[in-house]
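The instructor's notes for this session suggest beginning with a concrete chain rather than abstract definitions. Hand out the sequence below and ask the class to guess, before any prediction is shown, which regions might be ordered.
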Amino acid sequence: MEMQTKEIDGTLYAVKPFNAIKGIGIQTKLIKVLGGSLGTIQNGGIEKALEILSNNIDDGDVEKLIISLFDTGIFTVVKAEGEPIKKIVDLDTHFIGEYARMWKVVLFILEVNFGDIVKKLTSNSNIREALNL
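After discussion, reveal the predicted structure:
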């Protein structure tokens, strides 16, 4: 699969899909971090889902998950004369003070790599409301 692009908050981002082995590893981390909270949100129990999520969540697990999402190379794309110029996103500095944008990029990374699952989840009105989509 080739790189996919999306404009998020005025910046064009390019995401390269994971290879299968990396995708399996990240899917496992997602399941571990999210636990049973998504099923609860799907049924409309947003408050209960947040409680489940906060009980299951470990700061280290979330940090490792986010780092692993970005470590395959997420780029910003600047349109210049000739070919577009890609610049790798430095997770540690790029999103300083812009965490909402970071989460939008995370969702885009997940859409590129787990599109079928993300599409199914975000089609649920309760999840769309919880994610403010």
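Then share the key points. The helical segments are 20-34, 37-42, 46-56, 59-70, 91-94, 99-113, 115-122, 125-130. The chain has one domain: 4-128.
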